[in-house]
């Protein structure tokens, strides 16, 4: 079976599991406006102490997320770890969060309610260049209220990170059972987000309670890309 046929079958399973129809295409900006993120030093925190301190946060400070904190969180949890010659290219990116087969299928979107130097809206993280691609500058709060099944996360999270997976990339290489593995890939990234957020002194919480269609619409996802997890983040209260 071709990768395209497998992707179609996986999307059918995905829609069935989420009681979803094919999403209406809402195309956001092309992301041509790029905002470089500042260089940051890695947090100096003991690994086991960080594992022991990690919590899901339900109380957040009502203030802008500092740009250096956002930059460090993205860089050290879902940024590029190294470039290697692979898949026919000299500089193939491998992430701080590994994926099965090293496939470049995880994407991170940054939904900004309030963050330093960023207009509220939707951005896509570009790990290879450590930039944000601006997709839309509409206030995301009304959409987020439909996205979170627990709407109390909306006023908590200064920023909501959304992890997505490119099913077309997955099924160009692997058979249909890999639908499960892409969720494991996302889980690895979630633990990185928890640990790096903790090491940076940020408050964060993984959130799987979201409306798939509403989130796909907010992010303007193309059909073969599915949202897998949300991560609410802000400064600790
Ligand atoms: C994959 C995953 C999904 C989660 N989804 C939610 C969620 O939708 N809503 C929520 O309030 N907490 C969510 N949590 C947080 C868990 O409830 C929390 O991790 C658990 O109660 C243990 O608490 P701790 O993280 O402080 O150790 C999620 C955690 C994980 C790992």
From TrEMBL:
One of its GO terms (molecular function) is oxidoreductase activity. SUPFAM superfamilies: FMN-dependent nitroreductase-like. InterPro entries: Bacteriocin_Proc_Enz, Nitroreductase, Nitroreductase-like, SagB-type_dehydrogenase. PANTHER family: NITROREDUCTASE MJ1384-RELATED (PTHR43745:SF2). This is Nitroreductase. It comes from Prauserella muralis. The lineage of its organism: Bacteria, Bacillati, Actinomycetota, Actinomycetes, Pseudonocardiales.
């Amino acid at each position: 079976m071709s990768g395209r046929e497998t992707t179609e079958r996986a999307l059918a399973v995905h829609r069935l599991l989420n009681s979803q129809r094919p999403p209406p295409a809402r195309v956001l900006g092309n992301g041509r406006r790029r905002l470089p993120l500042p260089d940051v030093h890695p947090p100096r925190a003991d690994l086991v102490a960080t594992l022991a301190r990690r919590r899901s946060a339900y109380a957040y400070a009502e203030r802008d997320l500092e740009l250096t904190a956002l930059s460090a969180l993205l860089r050290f949890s879902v940024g590029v770890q190294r470039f290697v010659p692979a898949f026919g290219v000299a500089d193939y990116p491998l992430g701080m969060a590994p994926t099965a087969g090293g496939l470049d299928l995880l994407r991170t979107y940054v939904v900004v309610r309030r963050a330093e130097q960023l207009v509220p809206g939707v951005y896509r993280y570009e790990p290879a260049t450590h930039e944000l691609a601006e997709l839309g500058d509409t206030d995301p709060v009304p959409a987020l209220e439909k996205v979170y099944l627990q709407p109390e996360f909306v006023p908590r999270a200064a920023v909501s990170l959304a992890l997505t997976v490119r099913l077309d990339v997955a099924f160009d290489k692997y058979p249909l059972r890999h639908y499960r593995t892409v969720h494991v890939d996302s889980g690895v990234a979630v633990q990185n987000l928890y640990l790096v957020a903790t090491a940076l002194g940020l408050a964060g919480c993984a959130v799987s309670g979201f409306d798939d269609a509403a989130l796909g619409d907010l992010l303007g996802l193309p059909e073969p890309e599915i949202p897998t997890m949300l991560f609410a983040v802000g400064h600790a209260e």
